[in-house]
Design goal:
It contains 11 helices and 12 strands. The chain is of the alpha+beta class. The strands form 3 sheets. It has a 5-stranded antiparallel sheet with strand order 1-2-3-5-4, covered by helices on one side. It has a 5-stranded antiparallel sheet with strand order 8-9-10-12-11. The protein has a two-stranded antiparallel sheet with strand order 6-7.
Length: 371
């Protein structure tokens, strides 16, 4: 499948329009999807009770092609989607494997109505799943070739075949991996190696074991060379009996059908992530090249601060102890003067000079006048 959702998004949209339409509308629409899938939707106002849906999808294996169309098991699985709403028309329209008659009037107008339409839109996924289920259940030990179990080639898309080999104790599914670009091969190889390491841990002991090899496994000996020519190696899954029992069968089959899509999704997402990181890094480098002045200014400011710190330390070293004591004594005397002469009296200075004058002492070096 090209997407991980079982319902076809385009088919679901068309069927919902027909279901919700208040007035009958003529429709004769052909819809094409990935994997050579074709839908033909017909609705006529002359027959408003019935809507016809024809499906053409490639079969997984030519061994499933019967003279009367799909196998009874596949038709039974299709009828089980919603027995009250859809009905298989026999024979199918020319050029299609299956034609369904839909009765939208029988779908109740509730919250579950959209879910019922989604189940009908997933009819192609049901056909593919039922084919693979039937193959896994009908394998027998007589399918051998020169003493080895003969692999069965399954083709969902001409460029994406895979092989299923039934053995007494397990079923082996082998996927040849091909990519157009070498970068995708590198990403996928790293992903497969990591998948092998994770699958070999105890936490995932119950899941099918995975093995990647750059060369074909021995189970594919004798297959055509065009099917074995790959650039991404081969991925193998060992499926035991408990993986195909009950509800696990449906999950296992759906995982096998979607493995190619999952690998492509992972490679595309990883490549996009790497490109975004590289683009972001490139933008940062271009910004640095276009704005070098800002970084230079930052470097200059750092250098200036370092120089100022060094000059300050040099000044502190040059100051002697005597100078430091003098500076401190001067500061102390100035503080004392501020405390003593904080209150000023107008004319007090003149009063002191006039009445509180000190007598002058005779100089020791003066002369005495002789009379």
């Amino acid at each position: 499948m090209a997407c991980f959702e079982r319902p076809s998004p385009a088919l679901k949209e068309i069927l919902l329009k027909l279901y919700r339409a208040q007035k009958p509308m003529e429709i004769d629409h052909h819809l094409y999807e990935f994997g050579s899938v074709e839908y033909h939707i017909q609705f006529s106002a002359s027959d408003p009770q019935n809507t016809y849906l024809s499906i053409s999808t490639p079969l997984l294996s030519q061994g499933l092609l019967l003279s009367y169309g799909l196998s009874p098991y596949t038709k039974q699985m299709v009828e089980g989607i919603c027995p009250d709403v859809l009905e298989i028309v026999e024979p199918a329209k020319q050029g299609y494997q299956l034609t369904l008659r839909l009765h939208f009037a029988k779908i109740p107008y509730t919250k579950d109505s959209e879910k019922i339409v989604a189940k009908i839109a997933a009819v192609q996924a049901v056909i593919l799943s039922s084919q693979l289920k039937e193959m896994l259940q009908n394998f027998n030990s007589q399918d051998t070739y020169q003493g080895m179990y003969k692999p069965t080639k399954l083709v969902y898309h001409p460029r994406e075949p895979f092989f299923v080999i039934r053995q007494p104790q397990k079923i082996i599914a082998v996927f040849p991996i091909r990519f157009k670009e070498d970068s995708d091969v590198i990403i996928a190889t790293a992903f497969f190696q990591e998948l092998m390491e994770v699958g070999s841990s105890k936490k995932w002991a119950n899941v099918p074991s995975c093995c990647w090899s750059p060369i074909p496994p021995p189970e594919l000996v004798g297959e055509p060379i065009e099917d074995l020519s790959t650039n991404g190696g081969f991925v193998s899954f060992d499926i035991s009996s408990h993986h195909v029992e009950g509800k696990r069968l449906d999950k296992t089959v759906w995982s096998l059908l979607n493995f190619y899509a999952y690998v492509k999704y992972h490679v595309k997402s990883t490549r996009g992530f790497i490109q975004r990181r590289m683009r972001k890094r490139l933008e940062g480098l271009v910004q640095v090249l276009h704005n070098p002045s800002s970084e230079r200014k930052q470097e200059r400011t750092k250098k200036d601060k370092a120089k100022a710190g060094r000059k300050f330390t040099k000044k502190l070293i040059k100051l002697s102890k005597s100078n430091i004591i003098k500076q401190r004594c001067g500061e102390l005397s100035r503080k004392i003067k501020r405390i003593r002469f904080r209150i000023k009296i107008h004319g007090f200075g003149r009063f002191c000079r006039r009445w509180l004058r000190r007598p002058k002492s005779p100089s020791s070096k003066g002369y005495v006048r002789l009379e």
